[in-house]
Amino acid sequence: MTTSHNLGFPRIGERRELKKATEAYWAGDLDRAGLEAAGAEIRRANWEKQRAAGIDLIPSNDFSFYDQVLDMTCLVGNVPARFDWDGEHADLDLAFDMARGTDEAIACEMTKWFDTNYHYLVPEFTQNTTFKLAGAKVFEEFAEAKAEGLTTKPVLVGPATYLTLGKVTDGSGLDKFALADQLIPVYIEILDQLAAAGAEWVQIDEPVFSLDLNDAQRAVIDKTYAALSRVGDLKIMVTNYFGELRDNLELFTQLPVSALHIDGVRGAGEIEAVAARLPGDTALSLGMVDGRNIWKTDLAAAKTVLAQVRDTLGADRLMVGPACSLLHSPVTLRNETRLDQRLVAWLAFAEEKLDEIVALARAVDGEVDSALFEANAQAMTDRRESSLIHDDFVAKRVAGLTATDYQRNSVYAERARQQRAKLKLPMFPTTTIGSFPQTRDVRKARAAHKKGDLSDADYDAFLKQQIDEAIAMQEDMGFDMLVHGEFERNDMVEYFGEQLAGYVFTKLGWVQSYGSRYVKPPIIYGDVSRPKPMTVKWSKYAQSRTAKPMKGMLTGPVTMVQWAFVRDDQPRSETVKQVALAIRDEIVDLEAAGLAAIQCDEAAFREGLPLRRADWDEYLDWAAASFRLAAGGVRDDTQVHTHMCYSEFNDIIESIAAMDADCISIETSRSQMELLDAFVKFAYPNEIGPGVYDIHSPRVPSTDEMVALLEKAVAVLPAEKLWVNPDCGLKTRGWAEVKPALENMVEAAQRMRARIVEPA
Description:
Elements: E1 3-4, H1 17-26, H2 32-53, E2 59-60, H3 68-75, H4 92-100, E3 110-112, E4 119-121, E5 124-125, H5 137-147, E6 153-157, H6 159-165, E7 167-168, H7 180-197, E8 201-205, H8 215-228, E9 235-239, H9 249-253, E10 259-263, H10 271-277, E11 283-289, H11 299-313, E12 318-322, H12 341-344, H13 350-364, H14 370-385, H15 392-399, H16 412-423, H17 440-451, H18 456-477, H19 494-497, E13 501-504, E14 511-514, E15 517-519, E16 523-529, H20 536-544, E17 551-555, H21 557-562, E18 565-566, H22 572-592, E19 597-601, H23 616-631, E20 639-644, H24 653-659, E21 663-666, H25 676-682, E22 687-690, H26 703-714, H27 735-755
Parallel strand pairs: 1-12, 2-6, 5-7, 6-8, 8-9, 9-10, 10-11, 11-12, 16-18, 17-19, 19-20, 20-21, 21-22
Antiparallel strand pairs: 3-4, 13-16, 14-15
Helix pairs in contact: 1-2, 7-8, 10-11, 11-13, 17-18, 22-23, 23-24, 26-27
């Protein structure tokens, strides 16, 4: 019979139980036993949901208190020396130190997991790197599931992916792929222990097969699976997802393992070729259910594809699962009682996707759930024909765009001259990225207003008080360009999406971004437009409270789409264009309200980059154009900023320059200004704010640390083009750490001004 299986399930809990427990532990309000009990309950509930749905092969070790790559780092004992590890057991507290930093050690670098909005902790390699089996989590969770009556499929990040995602941090020129000879024996030891514990299957995730692989990576893959395939009677499933195999298809299909998994959504065109090339005893797992989006699967279409593969391979060699781990999906639709029921009929979250997987596996064996398939077909038709989706006004506006809509009136040099004359800022001007701490009082007031327990007038008075205090604080500290703090905003995407036509929001549709940071992505179901101004009221009020320039804060069109569950019935580029026009209207209104500077964040610009270089140019062209479309309606003397998080810029710097923002701020503190190399080599022409304060760690950096980072920046970039700012918004931090850190940051800027004379 065809086997149904899952690659991974959301680990946050239906009501964010993991976040609450983890943050309580960090705050000292919950002990270690309480934290681990909360994790165990989430795992138990997840396994039970999958068992109840009828999943034949259920994963374990897909749960994490922070990040699965960090878990792998602990499991193989690859702990950076600065964390003073004793070399024995790499436990949960050590993992938290690596993720969050300590008073003595900066946190490990964090960046995006392929082209998703999930962040992983980057493994670090040096000439002194060694590996050893140093963790027990994978074995403990397998045993835990077995006690529940389940023989699970443990999940591991594969060696090739682990080495690819890591970075050499000691400047030694080490070939990180040469570390495979030390790493592979640890994987063999892990598999031996799992086999001894009674595991039958192990899932090894190798999404690097969706990338352009070099000879070193290919050699690691050959060496790894030649060795791992000799481990006992254990069945190994190697999974690829997030894209097509393309030139890696031959390498992938010849792996000497028991089963191979491919992304049947993004790699639909390769299914037939993969099935035809499989060795005679290798099973094929097809990911026919989209793990990254929330639309129902077209069951009839998926069944047709599966039936063709079954005819080729036979039922015993066919497995059905999601395209990738369901980590990237909200947990369940059961709690979404406030959504338009017409829309609900089109959706499937993680729990509902389990039902789709099982239904497809059974249907391809002839056990068709007729009622389910008929309801699914009706949903497909209703969505295609629904009046909710299309807006003639938006279509006509997009069709009427011309080349002049995609550019500012003058080139940067002329704009910069006018902006300097208007703003009169000192060297090393100081600012923040936008948000200030969302304290318990702020969240409580917002929730009370949303429930109707706090009147509009009282809520406005509360927000005015918060803004007034934030402005007074910034003026007292000596900031040059102020922000209003975004106290009225719940999330940088959600706040705008709630005010745009074509967007809808769930009640509990949370997904993990990193650690205990969860987001509730909007659903873009139809054409997008802006019915009325979204931020003008509070930005205008804030500007009225100070003589210093106030920066308006917006989220850019690529990020608004990338961090949403996006309609899949038209190209993403068309949806981004619609959002860009809505943001353009807001920018023009902010300028008219007296804002001299407007920041339009494109944190997800690089994240949206296709995994294959051959596809980059098309994306970069329309992504950069969308920013210019959003910013193209203002005067030359209005300064347009943008911000990008955790991005490697070397290979896309020309496209960042093509965005033509007057100033860009970026993350550089964890990487010790490494990211500036791209701007130096390219001779980036506009202004830049390299972050000097790592806001993702609770530690307070000293003034000397920030001065040292600025000195690195001044050594390679013109001082007159440098801004001083944190890495990112301060929403998730507390005032107790933010205030001293910002004071140190302003002092660092003042020290730099004292040392460097501004050019005439």
